[in-house]
Structure prediction request, 231 residues.
Amino acid sequence: MRFARFDERGPLTTIELGALRSLNAAFLTARYELQSAGALWDRLQSGGDVADMHEANTTFPFYGQAVQEIASGAAAYERHVALTAWRYTAAAVVLGVTVLQRVAEAKPPLTAATVEELCQEPTLGRLHEALSVPVADLLPEREHSFPNEREDTAQRWARVRDGVADAIELVVEIAADEEAAHPRTKDEAAGCLLTEHCPPHTDPVYHGVLEPLFKLAEEAPFDINRIIKSS
Prediction:
């Protein structure tokens, strides 16, 4: 699993480094499992197509029934893994950005209570806030950076931030469709946890956001280490 090689004598505290490592292992494991679940779903979809052709002229539909039953469980498992991945990945991003900013600005280490709080799934609004931190401006220039690296980094973070904003709007739309009393406004939705507002019969709220969020979560420890080495 990819994780930056930190000097144990560096500015990170044991609890900060331990939390970053643990969340990194958690979301990478969930990411790999999600990839496997996606491959299984694709295979079953192909199997369903074959079953449709195989049973077109037969009165025995057992092949197709078996594929459908397995596919139903596979779809539920894929969503379960995706929501698990979201919980740890979103927390890794928020913790990573918080530690990165405090190291870049030479602020005191985070308290144990703060680290523990940041390891929990953040609300959509808290995640959006973390993605609004100008990480690109906090990172030191590389000796051999590619053209427009800083601009490219800022744009990537902005795209994910916009994706979270879209997720907030989708949570409001789902609540309206479900005739739920809450949340009814964007501000209310921003205070929600995505994992609690992603009903199994709706399109995934995390669609289009989770994969790029994986990349930012994976990059954060390396960016922190980059700041440390430049100081």
